[in-house]
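Exercise 7. Given the components listed, write out the predicted structure of the assembled complex. Treat all entries as one system.
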Amino acid sequence: MYIIVAGGGKVGYYLTKTLVAEGHEVLLIEQDVREVSRLSEELGEVVMHGDASEMRTMKEAGMERADVVVSVTGDDGDNLVITQLAKRKFGVPRTIARVNNPKNEQLFHRLGIDQTVVSTKIIFNLIEQQIETDQVIPIAALKRGNVEIVEIDLSNDSPVLGQTVGMLDLPVDTLIISIVRGDHAIIPHADTKFRSGDSVIALVKADREAELRDIFADTGSTR
Amino acid sequence: MRVVILGCGRMGSVMAKQLSDEGHDVTVIDQDPNAFRRLKDFNGKMVLGNGLDPDVLKRAGIEDADSFVAVTNGDNRNITSVQIAKEIFNVPKVLARIYDPMRASAYEELGIPTLCTTMIGAGLMVDFLLGKEWGEVSRYCDFQVD
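Answer.
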């Protein structure tokens, strides 16, 4: 794959380094000439000096044959223009933009940028998950259905230890899919008993998650 | 008319004064507080902040604005803010000032209204040097990009 990375800050640098190590053809475009010489020392031939939002630079970089364009500068305006021109003027099939202000994410999607990375939002979500759900960890959100697959690690104090699946008073719209015990994934039935250290994998409607937590988690001692 | 102007440089401040003196409701946004010194005896509103932040644009009253122009010294900033104004806030009349002729032409083709002051200025000067009459603005904006 030919991948063009715009912006040689920390994200652009490590991204380029990783992609090169994976054997991809990569070109990193950086505007600041001093940064370019520093980056070239580290990364070699893959660094190009120029304004990646300028049509001339884009042509020189061979943007029309790029498979992916990733714009990771610290400026949302630059990232939008680079990915937008890549997509609409050079027909690049896949464009990824870093969005610094989470409120601009919607705009980027509306303007046709394929993927956005909002680091503030990712970190915020991780914090929220930790605070909100304690031992119930969402592992997948099923698209549009408002349904999540969650994992619940049973602690030594979980109120369900020794009980069977059939004994639980589960909320509606909830299904226990599997119990992972050590290296084994058990497909549970009504008389399967819960043990300490089990990971319970469940399918749950997002608005029922709190009820599910109350059943499995030892909410008293962990807060 | 309610106008929001992004960028209180030479062009932004002159426009703001002119429109305000003609009785329009003008708000100017800039992220440098010193930029507002250019506005003397100005009756409009001044908002300090980043023009790519939808919250700042809201503070400037973009939700009720009739028009929005972006005249910061960053082409990409102008292009992006104009698209925020148009796509997110549905401002009916928008215009982005662009220095780079190729970028202006590319965005004009994508349906974003742009004004390339470089092409207009250069065209007027060339006509002056060649002793030609100055023509319509559109004559200077119509350029070829290789």
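Discussion: The two ends of chain A are 48 Å apart (CA to CA). The interface with chain B takes residues 53-56, 75-78, 80-81, 84-85, 88-89, 101, 103-104, 106-107, 110-111 of chain A (CB under 8 Å).
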